[in-house]
Amino acid sequence: MQQLEEDDDLLLVVTFYVGNRLLGIPTEKIQEIIKIGVITDVPHAPGHIIGILNLRGRIVTVIDLGTRLSLGSSQRGEEGRIIILDDGGESVGLMVDRIADVIRIDPQELTPPPANMKATQSDFFDTVYRFQGGLVGLLAVDAVLATD
Amino acid sequence: MDILDDEIILGYIEESREHLADIETDLLTIEEQGAEINRDLVNKVFRAAHTIKGGAGFLNLTTIKELSHGVENILDMIRNRALVPSREVVTLLLLSFDKLRDMINNYRESNNCDIGAIAAELAALAGGAAPPEQQEVREQPEQGELVIPLPASDIAIRVPRSDLERATSGGGIPYLLALDLMGDVPRPGVSLTDFIGMLDHCGAVLDGQVALDLTGGLDEEPAELLPFFVLMVSSLNSQELAAALNISPDKIIPLDESVSPVAEPNPTPAGSSCIDPPEQEFTPPPARTGSLSPVADHLRQSTPPVAADHQGGGGSLLPESTLRINVSLLDVLMNLAGELVLSRNQLLQAILRGDQGGLKAAGHRINSVTSELQETIMLTRMQPIGTIFNKFTRVVRDLSRELGKEINLVISGKEVELDKTIIEGLSDPLTHLVRNAVDHGIENPAERHRSGKSAGGTVRLHAYHEAGQVIIEISDDGRGIDPEKVVRSALGKGLITPEQARPLSDKDKRFLIMMPGFSTADQVTDISGRGVGMDVVKTNIEKLNGLMDIESEIGRGSLFQIKLPLTLAIIPCLFVESSGRRYAIPQVSVVETIRIGEAQIADRIQRVGDAEVLLLRGEIIPIIHLNEALGISAADAAGDLNLVIVTNGVMQYGMVVQQLHDSEEIVVKPLGRHVRHLKEYAGATIMGDGQVALILDASGLAHSSGIATISGAARSELKYQEPQREAVGESRALLTFYNGSQQLSVPLELVERVEKISAQAIEYVGGRRVMQYHGQVMPVMEVGDITSAGILDEERDLVVIVFAFAGREFGLAANTPVDSLECGSAVDGETLRQEGIVGSVIVSGQTVLIVDIVAAVTSWHPEWFATEIQGSVDTYLPPTVRLRTGGAPNILLAEDSDFFRDQVSRIIEEQGYSVVACPDGALAWEALNEHEESIRLVVSDIEMPNLDGLGLTRKIRGDSRFRGLPVITLSSLAGEENMAQGDEAGVTRYLVKLDRDELVEAIAALYPTERI
Predict the structure, then answer these.
(1) Tens-of-pLDDT digits for all 148 residues of chain A?
(2) Integer Cα distance of B959 and B957 in angstroms
(3) Which of the listed residues B124, B217, B266, B525 has the most CB atoms within 10 Å of its CB?
(4) Cβ A59–B630 below 8 Å, yes or no?
(5) Which three-class secondary structure state does DSSP give residue B532?
(6) Domains of chain A
(7) Which residues of B touch A145 (CB under 8 A)?
């Protein structure tokens, strides 16, 4: 992890993998990250909804981020995690394959997503960030959580 | 305005609301009692008005003060029997209190409210009915007001001279109290309102004023006191008064002549002070009923319809957020909280010590304490339903008056308690239903007179507990809901098609009023329309997890029934399992659970079209498989079938599940927004093991499974016709279909399946129609081959109705729509009987012919029956039968209905027996004696003229020759009581009409083999 000086202007981002893509969500939008527990499926729900789970007495809807982004469904492996976001008072979970690092990035260095990204996918990304030779796509959380 | 502490204002608002809460009921009681007033009750209302006035004075809410003052005057007159509380007087008081309530809810704006008209009305009433002893004063009226300058202040208290005179007329002494709102009041244990109460006890408060000018400006040092002055009249001397109010005597200034009040011409606008009575009022009657000028009428009209927004009011600044709780309940809660703390300490200690036994004990303790805590907290939310029932007295009173109807409102079950949230949610739907009953339900007196009813109608509001739920009924003895009118209206609005309307039962038709869009502008009246339809009522009730039902009889009245859970947060649910997943079904929608043994499945579960139905006590109930309905494929495993019969309020249906679990109280949690749109679920709950289970929504599930369609509802109509059907004693299930435009039917028990086909599927082979069916060639007929009723339209959707006879299948080609129904009326076997038609029934006002399918098959394929009987003898029938075939009759059949006698005879003869059939028990008894030697078994209907089936059985059992004769009874009356009666009479087997296979099986089992 890159060690940067404390700076209020820097954005703290949790990065994680969906398939082999490295994606990120700013920490300020994340409530917590939990292991994949027992999920109750909800028949007739949209395809990217895995089901609902009990998070300390609250019902949390779990979205398969891979399916949502058309990147193939999540593996639900040992390293799989659910990122809990606050969605206007409701809790929603995003299932990802693996959590990577928490990185600090300079918002100045964020660039718009590449033009050749699929139109359906580009809706889900605000910006991309160059990181260790690769690209981290910052998720447009609102678009991901939108109900069609 | 905002200078005074918010807390004081809020306290005042809260207390004023409490005072206002009961006033409506009290006033209506006062009206009822008329001249025979109950002094205590009037005093109570008077005190309420007085307290409101007092507080308003302190808080500078001048308009509220003015209006409550006017009200107080009238109440004072009523109390002194100077005014009879007539309907008009009470109406004016009610309107005034409405206005007061509005102003208190919106206290910030209250001073800008225009109360001129209503205040003038009050003043006129007060002036016109002045009590005789004050006439002297009135004869030399002093103009205007008294102005009492306040010490050390620029402001003065103004009070109408007449008020002071009236107050002092009893010998009281006027005082001016100089108090400090920061020091004297409020003080510990005595709120401002308490203090006003104390003042009231000591005498009559005329006015109060806060001297804001003495508190200084913003740029000055904050004043250490907030002076306020009270003008009051008391019979106590100043020492006594000081002691009674617990204030220092120097704050009490007696108003003797030295503080001579200054008379001033009336500077305030008309209506705000006492108006001089007009000349003709100089010799008023001692008491009068009071008459209102058109102003009151105008007020009534300009006041929005008395609606749900009485309490808390539309757009009110301060919604009601406090709740009164019984102190003893709070004590219980405190104790429980104490126990919880104790248990926590034990738990912590046990954890520290690693003491397993201690952990367990603490766990148990916390478990029991928390459950009790939960229950007790739920109790604090329970409110009697009387809180909303009470307001309907007023609603009905005002409405009936406006509509010129005489209506008596009967309320019962006020004490039934429900969760506060439910009570609040019920207010609007109930208001709508009550308004409907008054507006649409009850006729006007002339119309009632014409239909021979008493002029006054009755609307009943009734609440009671039943099976862990609360039932609320709103009924009227009015004109009832005409199902045909409803249908015409629904057709006119394009809500349903004539085809959908045809199979509807009267009940279904009435339910159409709850379809969105049914209630439209053309029937919006001032009273109940308001553009809000019954669909909104239904939705609101469903939001509360409730169900609605409508019963109605034309000319007799209507009944709207609402079933509600006691509380929303915790509901009893039945847990079921399907495909390894557990689901909860709210108990409110569960009718019963049924397990069907594997052997019976074929008999009890049948297919009609592509729908599966369950035959339950003669009813046809559509069923769904939960796992299929939820799209979790996996066919149900073989074995016993577990069914939950649920209702969505309109219809019942069965839900096949893999396992039935226990019923549990669960806490309902809402689903997230990504899945909330799924109508199949009412929410989710967390089970004991921490897993989440979905709560199923019976109506949503019916909808998504496609059985909630109108024809699906018709299928269940039987249930609602049950009472009539039992009265008739006969019922039959028919499958209706179309042959071109002609609607026809066949007895449902003969139908195996109904399959959709295309016209090309039917081939002609050797001059006969056949089709490929399940890998075999199946003969197909059409009605035209049997009788001339309609012509099959091959352009339209075709189905083939598959019948099984003597082990073979054959089809009847027909047009859609296909439906099944149970008809309560008897089959007419004569009027329309003809070749190929066995009879007719009237269904929803239309004549439907019943095709004689048995005769058709026998004439078409006579060889089937011959070969079948020969072929099956060894396997199916007892050896004796063969010998008896064609010989003397060996089975006696008693059945009064021609239709059934025909059907049953055929079924029996198909099996190779010889039948003697009789139309009643007496003739059957004769026939039995005649064929004493050959009859081996009796099949009898129960309901018959002359001698019924039970009578026949008793006669048989009473005769030594027939004691061992098996008797099978066929009846449409299922039920343990009926069966018990049958047992008592000596019936060998009790069968429910009419299941062919069951009958065949019973005969085969009971037919004696040993006697030849």
Answers:
(1) 444 455 567 888 999 999 888 899 999 889 999 999 899 999 999 999 999 999 887 889 999 999 998 888 888 888 999 999 988 778 899 999 999 989 888 888 888 877 766 656 677 887 888 877 778 888 888 888 888 6
(2) 5
(3) B124
(4) no
(5) coil
(6) 11-145 (2.40.50.180)
(7) 674
Superfamily of domain B394-565, CATH level 4: Histidine kinase-like ATPase, C-terminal domain (3.30.565.10)
In single-letter form, the type of residue at position B113 comes to: C
Distance CA B205, CA B638 (A): 84
Domain ranges of chain B: 1-136+271-303, 145-264, 327-380, 394-565, 570-715, 726-860, 877-1006
Q: What is the ipTM of this complex?
A: 0.87
Within 69-128 of A, beta carbons closer than 8 Å to B belong to 87, 90-92
Q: Which of A40, A87, A145 sits opposite B694 (nearest CB)?
A: A40
Residue B283's H or E segment, with its range, is none
Architecture in CATH of B570-715: Beta Barrel (2.40)
> B819, B736 in Cβ contact below 8 A?
yes
- How far from A38 is each of A46, A62, B325, B486, B686, CA to CA, in Å? 19, 11, 41, 50, 12
Residues in chain A within 8 Å Cβ distance of B631: 43-44
Which residues of chain B lie closer than 8 angstroms to A40, CB-CB?
A: 581, 684, 691-694
Provide the angle, in degrees to the nearest 10, between the axes of the packed helices B116-128 and B294-302: 150
Arch. (CATH architecture) of B1-136+271-303: Up-down Bundle (1.20)
d(CA A144, CA B826): 63
Task: For residue A44, give the nearest of B631, B672, B684 by CB distance.
Answer: B631
CA nearest to B581 within chain A = A40
Q: What homologous superfamily does CATH list for B877-1006?
A: Response regulator (3.40.50.2300)
Model pLDDT, residue B827: 65
Q: Please give, rounded to a whole number of angstroms, the shortest distance from the CA of B580 to a CA of chain A.
A: 11
Q: How near does any CA of chain A get to the CA of B582, in Å?
A: 9
What confidence tens digit (pLDDT) does each residue in B636-648 have?
666 788 899 998 7
Among B630, B677, B692, select the one facing A59 at the smallest CB separation: B692
The answer to whether domain B1-136+271-303 and domain B877-1006 are alike in fold is: no
CB B418 within 8 A of CB B387: no
Distance from CA of B699 to the nearest CA of A (A): 16
Residues of chain B with pLDDT under 50: 1-4, 129-142, 219, 257-319, 520-531, 709-731, 866-886, 1011-1012
The chain B residue lying nearest A38, using CA atoms, is B691
B17-32 pLDDT tens trace: 877 877 888 888 888 8
Cβ A140 vs Cβ A123: under 8 Å: yes
